[in-house]
Design brief:
Shape of chain B: globular
CATH architecture of the largest domain in chain A: 3-Layer(bba) Sandwich
CATH superfamily of the largest domain in chain A: FAD/NAD(P)-binding domain
CATH superfamily of the largest domain in chain B: Alpha-helical ferredoxin
Number of helices of chain B: 10
Helix content of chain A: 25-40%
Largest interface: A-B, 22 and 18 residues
Bound molecules: flavin-adenine dinucleotide, iron/sulfur cluster
CATH topology of the largest domain in chain B: Fumarate Reductase Iron-sulfur Protein, Chain B, domain 2
Radius of gyration of chain A: 31 Å
Oligomer: heterodimer
Structural class of chain B: mainly alpha
Mean pLDDT of chain A: 96
Low-confidence stretches of chain A: none
């Protein structure tokens, strides 16, 4: 029995010598000792030495929470010949010294009780060995933006197959829509296309576009995934990507890639550098589907690739790990409800501005406003639209809009040197390498006028969009008769993120950003083992952070794949088949789908690998047929007796 | 306040820039200059507020401020400014803008007799050069 002071964390409140004295006399306790830092190397050595001296067969460590150091102490015990599942932790820090700082006597009494209970528990513990499970060394990556592509490339380059799924017909995500990128202002397509084409031709990557994950079963190392590939109505095996069909198609529909600023044919390839460079038909816009006649594409296609009868297909894949990289959307137009967004044509969002500034965009890169194609001379940028606004949007900061707004204002000045950009902001958040300098350059060298305050009203007056704001620095109200207004709308999770989390049996925050296992120490692991997160799916972030996180999630996948087999805690539920009546109540009780009924033998069975050892089934079983390994009913009763004294 | 490009980068603002040689756009309104200025108890606008007005093209309003005349050109502000703005130069350009068309802030002929008698000569010469 070992008691840790944890410096003053425990020892400053709990009377450790007294605890040692009281525990020394307990039945079954060979020896009780204390030490200042049990987790330190000398502390660990002390445990080993005493185990050997006293020939102990089990140990109790009274210290911090098992979440912190259980595995440390288990391996110390094991290295001295004690079965690691006969090492119990009594948490006398989080449960005694911290919550009862002002009641040292009570804290000490509680510590003694918790330790007594742990001693009772360890007396009933069986020697167990960890369960061993195989691992399928293939990965699924969901979302092929820069995050998903980077993760897929890193995993595939290490020699493991990757299935990369995106619901759009092409890969690249939002980065494909950007014109130039902060902080260096290099062209987005130029740095993106080497990645997209590498992904497209990588022998280790199976690319499934126009596809979505429909169901996932299994567990870490052994997932089975069903993917629905939606009909594109073009046989991509035959199609050469010549584009003749897209030229001849008579039907037009607003282009989602151009964010509605341009139209595209019903059969189209979203942009010139698209990978895969193959067209898809949008049935809602296609005359063949809406009117039952046309078929021009079918007639002109030189290889007969058009296939109006194509159906969705279901693909099943077995993988050992999953990376979620579903990225973001912008706060939708309909929800902004302010600033005339979605009402006045010259009020646009950040991605629309990117398209206006893009050489392959609707204006060939000239800044022309949507309403009449005029070059706007007065442009107002509004930051934090929907961000940091708990009443009308989201309380969080979208993190990247300060930077992209500075970028937009600068790019605008490059294209329209005699124009004046104004930026309404609340704070400028430019915490990145070279970022502050980038923003200062905008004000100092390029004459972007920053006005500190939120805009109250935007309304159309003739050909102007009038902006009413304030400059809290000078304390003056501001009125600008602008030609165009650009809104930095909040970054929100990609649509369907919460539903996907449900399919994956993992968690998101209230907004739909995937939750990480620990905000500081496990930022790319999800709350479900074997599922990792990268990019804006986790939280708003820029490209450098996205790429870093993607590489990090790939490293986690590779670590998983490097083990010959995975281990799983053996403290799982077990069924006494003699007693079990097969009533199935436990199956309902299990949150991890670890239990099933064996209908032939009429008993409940446990899938050890899925069982998290929570004990819900053991409680639910009306017959006492289910038992939690190393938490038997007799152990629990003995622990309660120890506490009740 | 109506803002437009001919206000923000107007004729008056350009003249100030020519005279002072200063780019006030560099200022990020941290206020350090005002925090260290010895004259602020008598000023109607703090020094950084004068700079803000010039940034916004509100030159008229800056010219109407007492602050530009109270500035002692001691350089305590510019020595501290993290963005390298020389406020005394800007203040001087504002004063000069007022004085050049013949305007006088101080008329030597109207100075009270006790000032003429008691003020050190050095101060009188410097003051007359600066304010008339
Ligand atoms: C206006 C604007 C300008 C920007 N400018 C810059 C800049 O200059 N520099 C910079 O560093 N960053 C910039 N950014 C940020 C940059 O866009 C992001 O950091 C980056 O795109 C994030 O990549 P991602 O892969 O995480 O997400 P995304 O690019 O959103 O990719 C996610 C992918 O997942 C797919 N997907 C989503 N849900 C599913 C699903 N359920 N199933 C299958 N597939 C799915 C999507 O189709 C998409 O292809 C800008 C952002 C905006 C809004
Ligand atoms: S059949 Fe549809 S996709 Fe093909 S050309 Fe006609 S409208 Fe376009
Ligand atoms: S990044 Fe800047 S503009 Fe965007 S929400 Fe945060 S503070 Fe507002
Ligand atoms: S110290 Fe410099 S940067 Fe700060 S407010 Fe004064 S002039 Fe502006």
């Amino acid at each position: 029995m070992f008691v840790c002071w944890c410096g003053l964390n425990i020892g400053g409140v709990v009377d450790v010598p007294r605890v040692v004295e009281e525990i020394s006399g307990c039945p079954g306790v060979a020896r009780a000792v204390d030490y200042r830092y049990m987790c330190s190397d000398p502390g660990q050595q002390l445990i080993r030495d005493i185990i050997r001296e006293e020939r102990l067969d089990s140990v109790v460590i009274a210290a911090c929470s098992p979440g912190m150091h259980e595995s440390t102490f288990q391996s110390v015990a094991e290295s001295a010949g004690v079965n690691p599942y006969r090492c119990e932790i009594a948490n006398i820090r989080e449960q005694c010294s911290w919550p009862h700082q002002n009641e040292p006597l009570e804290a000490t009494r509680k510590a003694v009780e918790l330790i007594r209970a742990a001693v009772e528990k360890v007396r009933g513990d069986e020697a167990l060995s960890a369960l061993s499970i195989p691992v399928t060394r293939r990965a699924l990556v969901i979302g092929a933006g820069i995050a998903g592509m980077q993760a897929a490339l890193d995993i595939a380059d290490a020699g493991h197959e990757v299935v990369l799924v995106d619901r759009l017909p092409h890969i690249g995500g939002h980065m494909a829509q950007l014109s130039e990128t902060f902080p260096t202002l290099d062209c987005s397509q130029c740095i993106l296309t080497p990645k997209t084409s590498e992904v497209g031709r990588h022998p280790g990557i199976r690319l499934l576009t126009s596809s979505e994950v429909e169901s996932v079963s299994g567990y870490v190392g052994n997932f089975t995934v069903k993917i629905r590939r939606r009909a594109t109505y073009v046989n991509w095996d035959l199609c050469t990507g010549c584009g003749l069909c897209t030229e001849k198609c008579p039907s037009r529909t607003p282009s989602a890639f151009e964010r509605g600023l341009a139209e595209e044919p019903a059969i189209s390839i979203a942009f010139p550098q698209a990978v895969p460079h193959k067209p898809v038909i949008r049935p809602e816009a296609c005359r063949h589907f809406t009117k039952g006649k046309c078929g021009v594409c079918e007639k002109v296609c030189p290889v007969g690739a058009i296939d109006f009868g194509q159906q969705d297909s279901l693909i099943e894949e077995k993988v050992g790990a999953i990376v979620v990289a579903t990225g973001y959307d912008l706060h939708p137009k309909a929800k902004v409800g302010e600033y005339g967004y979605g009402v006045y044509p010259d009020v646009i969002d950040g991605l629309e501005f990117e398209r206006l500034n893009s050489a392959s965009g609707p204006t060939q890169g000239q800044i022309r406003r949507p309403s009449d194609g005029k070059v706007p001379k007065e442009v107002v940028f509004i930051q934090c639209v929907g961000s940091r606004d708990q009443e009308n949007g989201y309380p969080y900061c979208s993190k990247i809009c300060c930077m992209y707004t500075a970028k937009h204002a600068r790019l605008y000045k490059h294209k329209v040197p005699d124009g004046q950009p104004y930026v309404f902001y609340m704070d400028i958040r430019a915490g990145g390498k070279g970022y502050e300098e980038f923003v200062q350059h905008a004000t100092e060298e390029e004459g972007v006028l920053y006005l500190r305050g939120r805009v109250a009203r935007v309304f159309q007056d003739g050909e102007h969009v009038v902006v009413f704001g304030v400059d809290t620095l000078s304390g003056k109200k501001v009125e600008i008769r602008a030609d165009m207004v650009v809104l930095a709308t909040a970054i929100v999770p990609a649509s369907g993120a919460k539903e996907l989390a449900r399919v994956l049996k993992t968690a998101t925050d209230e907004y739909g950003f995937f939750s990480e296992a620990h905000p500081k120490l496990r930022p790319v692991e999800s709350l479900t083992r074997g599922i990792y997160i990268a990019g804006c799916a986790q939280a708003p972030k820029d490209i450098p952070d996205t790429v870093t996180q993607a590489g990090s999630s790939a490293a986690k996948v590779l670590t998983l794949f490097s083990a010959p087999r995975l281990s799983h805690s053996p403290t799982v539920a077990a069924v006494d088949e003699e007693i079990c009546t097969g009533c199935g109540i436990c199956v309902e009780a299990c949150a991890y789908e670890a239990r099933a009924l064996d209908t032939r033998r009429h008993v409940a069975v446990v899938n050890d690998v899925l069982c998290e050892g929570c004990g819900a089934c053991a409680v639910a079983c009306p017959n006492g047929a289910t038992r939690q390994r190393n938490m038997a009913r007799s152990q629990a009763m003995a622990m309660i007796d120890a506490v009740m004294g | 306040m109506r803002l437009a490009r001919d206000v923000v980068r107007g004729e008056e603002e350009r003249k100030l820039r020519d005279i002072s040689g200063e780019e006030v756009r560099s200022c990020y309104q941290c206020g350090k200059c005002s925090a260290g200025c010895a004259m602020t108890s008598m000023m109607d606008l703090l020094p950084h507020q004068v700079i803000r007005l010039v940034q916004l093209g509100q030159v008229e309003e800056a010219l109407a401020s007492r602050t530009i005349w109270l500035c002692a050109s001691c350089l305590a502000c510019s020595a501290r400014c993290p963005r390298g703005v020389s406020l005394p130069n800007v203040m001087e350009s504002l004063r000069v803008t007022m004085l050049r068309p013949g305007g006088r802030h101080i008329d030597p002929a109207r100075l009270p007799a006790d000032v003429l008698e008691n003020a050190p000569e050095q101060a009188l010469v410097a003051g007359l050069r600066k304010y008339s």
